[in-house]
Amino acid sequence: MLFLCLCSALVVTAAQLVQDDLTLTRRLGQTVSFSCAGTGQCDYDYIFWYQKKETETFRLILYINRNSGYIGKGYGHPQENDFSPVKGKGWELQIEKVKQDHSASYYCSCRIRGNLYLIFGSGTKLMVTDEQVVKPVVSLYPAASSSLLCVASRMVPPRVRFSWKRQKDNGPAEDVPSAGDEQLELREPGRAASILLLRQPEDGPYKYSCSVQHEGGRVEARTRAELPAPAASCPPSRRAAEPAAVQQEAELVPVDPVQSRYQVKLLCLLYTVLIVKSLVYCCGLSLLRSLRDQGPSAADYSRPH
Length: 305
What we know:
Elements: H1 2-14, E1 23-26, E2 32-34, E3 46-52, E4 59-65, E5 71-72, E6 83-87, E7 91-95, E8 104-112, E9 117-120, E10 124-128, E11 137-144, E12 147-153, E13 161-167, E14 174-175, E15 182-188, E16 191-197, E17 207-214, E18 217-220, E19 225-226, H2 244-251, H3 257-294, H4 298-302
Parallel strand pairs: 1-10
Antiparallel strand pairs: 2-7, 3-4, 3-8, 4-5, 6-7, 8-9, 8-10, 11-12, 12-16, 13-14, 13-17, 15-16, 17-18, 17-19
């Protein structure tokens, strides 16, 4: 029974509604609408919409019938009359005149598995501001011998979503499989970074590229990166034979401060992950040993044989 429950939970975790817009930027008085796709997996026709402000919990606004556009209110949201359905690719949630108090993230949701579970979209954040949308500048660096670093900076608004692709020789580009490689993300004011920890596939080296989804559009790094081949025996150094002027020029090449900063953070993050994994492993062993040492409980001896 426990196994079935775990499997069911994993299936529910994998299911998700699709909200393509990470952010939507509007000025006061403008109109905005929030889309929600993937509703075909819902068991019922009702799509619920929630509002989430920075310092508050989720609040249910209303529901929209995905077939007829009928809305159901009465959940006590103070702004429920500011929202209405609008026909787009499906029935979308609309605010006809944006107010400053509408600044929040909006999530769509529906029920699956016979009304047992709710699944959500990833959310769309409404930014009410006079600032112009600015696309990010995306750079790709080899961070270490088995990792790549993709940095997005100078973007407005700051929310982005990273994606990685790989390509072998002149073959087609494909998404990096999540099963074999790990992805970590770092965020700080003004920039965000994605670190791809790679395991070199057996069928040859790949060239990797990263792109960033942003409200201003998708931006791809101008360069591609490839993991260095395993080091062979190095030939004797010729540095001593180089002219002194060439050596001095090579020593004066500046180091990219952004790359150096993220390399330090990458090392700290990797060490933290290793320490956490070690602690979890030790705790698991201690728990198993404790349960084994306890032996049968008193209740087991009281049962008739």
